[in-house]
Hints:
The chain has helices at 23-30, 39-42, 68-84, 119-126, 134-146, and strands at 2-5, 34-37, 52-55, 58-61, 89-92, 103-105, 113-115, 130-133. By secondary structure, the protein is α/β, with parallel strands linked by helices.
Amino acid sequence: MIAVSACLAGRACRYDGKANTVQALKAMVERGEAVPICPEVLGGLGIPRDPCERQGCQICTQSGKDCTAEYRKGAEAALALIQEHHITLAVLKAKSPSCGKGLIYDGSFTRTLTEGHGLTAELFIRNGVRVFTEDEWQEEKENSQKA
């Protein structure tokens, strides 16, 4: 069993009310092989919602509203959920202020990337969960099929 960002599993829970469906991940959820999580929704943020970006330790909207508490609450709820299911691997949405791993938007709202992790990815990694972005997961899957 793995955890996947709900938007990757076809759930329309992105900030703009859309999904980022990866068919293979959606199929895994449908077969009961993966648990979908959306930390933003778990933290109490609605759909749709103002886009946020990480600015150091804070996560804010472009107008400056601080949503860090909701993102932190959602990250902690997501961690509790995956620990309850004994999940140690997660496929999370790249670049997200919650789920991004390795590269996230820099807080300038200019689609500029910077090194770093989203709050949920960071919390998962600190707690021993292997985290992949959807692209890393696809690459890993392809490489294992070639071997």
